[in-house]
Amino acid sequence: MSLPAWPPKTSDAQLASLLAEASTYALAHGFTLLPPHPASGAPPAPTHAIAAPLSLFPTPFPRAEYVRARSIQRLYNSLYARIALDWAFLDNIFEEVAKVDEFQAELWTRWKAVRDELQRVQPLQLGIFRSDYLLHATGKESAIKQVEFNTIASSFGALSQKAGELHRYLAASGSFFNVAPQLADETAYPDNKSLVNIAAGLADAWKAYGNPNALVLVVTQDGERNIFDQRALQYELQATHGIKSIRHTFAELDVLAKHGGDKQALLVPNPLTPNEAPAEIAVVYYRAAYTPNDYTTGKEWDTRVFLERSSAIKCPSLALQLAGAKKVQQILAAPGQLEEFLLNPARPDTGFGAGAGTLTQADVDALRETFTGLWPLDDSELGKEAQQLAKSHPERFVLKPQREGGGNNIYRGDIPPYLANLDAESRPGEAPKREGYILMELITPPEDVHNWLVRGGEGKPRLADVVSELGVYGVSLFGDGKTVVNKEAGTLLRTKGRESDEGGVAIGISSIDSPLLV
């Protein structure tokens, strides 16, 4: 179906009123970021905040595709849990990737050093995932295609729920001035409890750990601006589940973290009770550790391994972080790979029973339908085909490294010279550097969709030709053969101007939006 002409027409006075209502609501309800830090650095405690980038109207999204994206999330959860448990599969991939990607090599090497020990100390793993999609338009029809699958530090769960609540409030209060019939349809605003559900996933892991006095540790980055999204999860943990949490960076944990007892409990001082013994940690929740910038010295790697070796449940484990690499995504697109993971009778229970359990070929096909074209860039026949495609039709592709965090991809016409530079930098007798990348067919979003976007702290809207990326959260607790949690956990919609290939919210490129189902 075609999406409606958007946004609806408004007068200057109506637009000004809508901007004031939306911005005030955002500030009043914690839909916020810290402003950019001054050159002197961040103050020890926040002194003010700015509204997170937002959209004045929800953006139209096909109802059937939204429902489909949410309905298959538990399948994706189960798939990636099984990948994390398949040591031979990961070793086979990263033995090659490690030759051309130092960061992935470090993750893989550190994991191999501790994984046997972890089977005894803490077999459980927690995944808080997000599967990201763009709509791919073919004529008047659009269907979701997967951009990537995130296994570490999947952010904006709290702000996403608040974005939906913002648009519901604007509709209920009359702030949309009845300018479009779609905005008056209450069923067009999906129920999205991503904040509640992600916090519940952390609580599930905390309960499985089995110590009612233990805490959740949030590992953060220095200078984090997205602090309110993270803090909202901590407040929800405390208010709904009675679970206390603390925050520390790698540098702080290098000094503070200790192991205790035969089971290698992770002990960290609680800054709120400095005179008491260090607190035991039930869950280590990473909102850092996904980029080489988080490991500027050897100490950060040592701290990561120290945390990994403890009895705390990690979110994610090193294995689960490796499972989220782009190379894994590319290999899953090969014939038979999904069947091997989802239908093989030897696979463990990760939410649908052991082996195929309740899964069928139709479930496998449902995942495969979300794939777009994916190729390796090695010297295999498929890799040579990809190199030729990238050189002859670069406008159809994006080049992706094994990285999280955005801003790392190479697009369209920049691909051929970039590949040439990689080949020039490669040394004889070593694996070509291009093998650290995959080639992905670009997804073509629907055209002529617009919205009013407001950058954080600017206080003025701009009308943009937009592209929206839908993320679906999932929670998976697995690994000991009997404790299995597998839940779909809500959605995120990020909307950006079509002129931008990347989509960072904190730097103002994307706005946190909510879908208007049509």
From TrEMBL:
Substrate binds at residues 130, 152-155, 224-226, 230, 287-290, 494, 505-506. Keywords: ATP-binding, Glutathione biosynthesis, Ligase, Magnesium, Metal-binding, Nucleotide-binding. It catalyses: gamma-L-glutamyl-L-cysteine + glycine + ATP = glutathione + ADP + phosphate + H(+). Its cofactor is Mg(2+). Pathway: Sulfur metabolism; glutathione biosynthesis; glutathione from L-cysteine and L-glutamate: step 2/2. It holds the Pfam family GSH_synth_ATP. Mg(2+) binds at E148, N150, E404. Binds 1 Mg(2+) ion per subunit. One of its GO terms (molecular function) is glutathione binding. Its EC number is 6.3.2.3. ATP binds at residues 148, 326, 400-409, 411, 440-443, 469, 496, 502. One of its GO terms (cellular component) is cytosol. InterPro entries: Glutathione_synthase, Glutathione_synthase_a-hlx, Glutathione_synthase_C_euk, Glutathione_synthase_N_euk, GSH-S_sub-bd_sf, GSH_synth_subst-bd, PreATP-grasp_dom_sf. The keyword Transferase does not apply. Residues 215-323 form the Glutathione synthase substrate-binding domain. Homodimer. Belongs to the eukaryotic GSH synthase family. This is Glutathione synthetase.
